[in-house]
Design a protein that fits this description.
The complex is a heterodimer of chains A (334) and B (437). Chain A is 35% helix and 19% strand. In chain A, the strands form three sheets. A seven-stranded mixed β-sheet of chain A has the order 3-2-4-5-7-6-12, with helices on both faces. Chain A is built from twelve helices and 14 strands. Chain A has 334 residues and is of the alpha/beta class. Chain A is globular. Chain B contains 15 helices and 18 strands. With 437 residues, chain B is α/β, with parallel strands linked by helices. Chain B has three domains: 116 residues, OB fold (Dihydrolipoamide Acetyltransferase, E2P); 50 residues, Dihydrolipoamide Transferase (Irregular); 194 residues, Alpha/Beta hydrolase fold, catalytic domain (Rossmann fold), CATH 3.40.50. Chain B has a seven-stranded mixed β-sheet with strand order 12-14-13-15-16-17-18, sandwiched between helices. A five-stranded antiparallel β-sheet of chain B has the order 7-2-4-5-9, with no helix packed on it. The chains are: A alpha/beta (334), B alpha/beta (437). Chains A and B meet through α12 of A and α3 of B.
Amino acid sequence: MARTLATTHAINEALHIALQSDPDVILLGEDIAGGGTREGEEIDEVGGVIGMTKGLCKAFPDRVFDTPISEMGILGTAVGAATTGLRPVAELMFIDFIGVCLDPLLNQAAKLRYMFGGKARVPLTVRTLTGAGMQAAAQHSQSLYWLTTGIPGLKTVIASNAKDAKGLLLAAIRDDDPVIVCEAKGILNDSCEVPEGDYEIPLGEAAIARRGGDVTLVGMGATVKTALQAAQHLAKEGIECEVVDLRSLQPLDEATVLSSLEKTGRLVVVDESTPRCGIASDIAALCVDKGFDSLNAPVKRVTAPHTPVPFAAVLERAFMPSAEKVVAAVHEMG
Amino acid sequence: MATPIAMPKLGLTMSEGKVIAWPIPLGEHVDKGQTVLIIESEKAEVEIEATAAGILRHIYVEPEEVVPCGSLLGAITAGADEPFDAEAFHADHHRPVASADQGMLAGATLGPGGAARAGAGEAGEPAARRVGRVLAAPAARALAKNLGFPLETIPGRGPGGRITKEDVEAFAERRRALRRVAEGVSLEVPQQGTGRPVVLLPGFGIDVAAFARQVPVLAQRFAVLGVNPRGVGLSDAPETEGYDVRTAAADVASLIEEPAHVIGASLGAAVALEMAFEHHDRVRSLTLVTPFVFASPTLLAVIDAWCAVGAMGSPTALAKMLLPWLFAAETLADPRARDRVERGLAEIAGRVSAPSLARWAAGLRAWSGTRADALGGVRAPTLVVAGSRDLLTPGAEALAQEIPGAKSVVVSGAGHAVALEAAEAVNEAILNHLAGA
């Protein structure tokens, strides 16, 4: 029997392997060591806001850094470190804080290789929590991956399970371009079979999470789980869904989406972020533009509404995509 | 656990709907996906599928009633003896919505599998003769183009009458089943049942759906072949001057290998007679429903009007024009029966194109009067069915006297469309006739 790991532990394992296999890898973020390296004191480290970096500062004391509470400082340091040849893994506790440190990402990390004609490279990784469902309210629950996806020069990935979270993170750290690794809150405590040792999941490759010939459901991060639940329900009605897990938002695996659409003729995108200018709209546009002759029904988007994320649990549930909403969208498309 | 059937909300502006019919009798079994209810909204009829299998246990709203979206209309229970409290169920599931805005919630009560399928185009016209832009999914357009089918010829069964890829595939499947009768000419010949062959020949401007009420009965004992002649249904429509009755008979003769019971109505009866004259080895018996050998001036005038109105592209207008000529006053007196036959007629008559109507009209005129002296030569056992109120072929019964040994049945109170109007009497007469032939 192969071992299973929760996503949080798989991410910790990936960081451990990355630090071990490459002396250029450094970690920096708020409370990722959490005082665990303070001289003369034997206190247990915090390991980040949900303990994902626990144990790393003890194993690699000179490469895991606590930072002041300044996202501008973290990202500024990390981009600079990356240009000098290190492979920094910066933790942006919640993607909601990206506004504070957008300039190092948007104007520096994303542009340097281009503006220096390929002579500079920025092997930066930013790990960040995304998504709602933990009652963390409007400023700690957003799914802003569409923002980094829309900036040329940045790559953005989001895993839907522990195995992919480990493999994608390792691939991101070893990539020579800045990669935003989104960690969806909805899957952090989910466990699955995770291979031992070092492996990478290539950036830009979607996965088929379930095979079916009637409708394609496209998900990313936690919404893959939502799509799989909907697929299970629809199978009882005789509707077989194919679930595509994007995994990588940029680069985007257009071929996998389009070939699934070609097979089914019907497509629903399930996206936890708000509907305007988002991934769901982007995928819908791709289908209309390059998959037009495959479309047998309108492309449907199941997203959050165009509002801030509510705090009240009942409202937060209503805000998020659900299997029921996906099933209704499939029925609606006829 | 009982499953509710509610008035769906089928469009943003729909706030209420009218119950048209419950095709499944109360207390009878219904399959999941079977049409359990027909409603009307914004001039379009919509078939509502059962979302669960079971017994149609209770009907809360009778046909002709108009109710708001979300209103509870009926209930399905898994079994006939399952405990069911109609009042309590109503209290739990009756969710009428007052305004169009709140109506979004009503649509949700359809629940899983509650896909309502509109059988008609957006303008409330039967889909086959849509005027203007054809509603079709991109995948359907691409496939139809690839297969060389004009979209206008493909019936759409998607939401709002949209043609889906499945519709094109089904159409292609039906096209593949066509039977070749002559060089470059293939006919649509739907078949049902097993046994000795029975051939059904529809009248002017309509397809074998005209025998919709005969086929289920005949198919229990016979192999029923409905023949859609040239230009009708999916059958090829060669661009000739006219479609003559003798060629039509030769087409049918080429479809059958052993002698068949040949049943024709009106112009179809002319084709049946022509078979008896020219292809008597293929005719086991002859049933002539409202036949003629001389087209009456009234018949010719109605055919003229049929062609003219048919060219205007409105199946509903055509149906309204034909209604009083084909059905007896007794049928027209009942508003519900009149509405039903009008809708059915629009559906059937709307499927034949204007050029095909013109070609058959030419063929009918050319044939009229050419066979008056030949009736004595018919050898097959013959039954003539007439309607006492038939305005178009009043000489039908007299024609029986010219055919040696022919029997005749006159259905009182029935018009030219006697097979639809008085199906039970006609079916009984046909079954008796075939049993003795």
